[in-house]
TrEMBL record:
Example GO molecular function: acyltransferase activity, transferring groups other than amino-acyl groups
Domain N-acetyltransferase positions: 12-180
Organism: Cohnella terricola
Keywords (A to Z) from UniProt: Transferase
A Pfam family recorded for this sequence: Acetyltransf_1
Name of this protein: GNAT family N-acetyltransferase
Amino acid sequence: MKISESWNTNSLNIRRAVTEDIEDLNRICASWQDKIDLEGEGFPEGYIENCMINGDLPPIKNAHIANYYFMVIQNKDGKIIGFFDLYHGYPDNETVWISIFLIDRETQGSSFGQEAIQSICDECMKSGWKSMGLGVHLKNWKGLRFWNNNGFNKIIKISGDKEYSATTFSIIGLKRELFI
């Protein structure tokens, strides 16, 4: 059950990332100005390069790069406006996991994120996956609203620090069922 290497929507081209995309992808990472406040840390040095070479694999036995997709989102003019990754088979064998989904700050609010998510869900459903999952930091109110509005409304796990403060963080795992 593998998804396509590339596909199109009405407004977007979605495809596997290549090394020539690194500069644009790093620019998009830099556009997330409040990441440290929301998640407690910025992107590690070489994040994009590491994802492309080694993958951002889940913490499971036998996780393998062959199940990992690092994808770019382009507008119809070919400009890279976002990226995401997918891991096939986490946290269970019927689920595809998104560990990062980011739209360039300049492009946010234009419905491209919603269009991309719907197309990702459609592509995964066509490939036979039953659900999609992801984790959102609880301080990320904008992200929580976005994911809930896009059908990720089943809570599968909450983990993190026990006490709330400016320097503590928690994550909520959300799931969206895919129906044929």
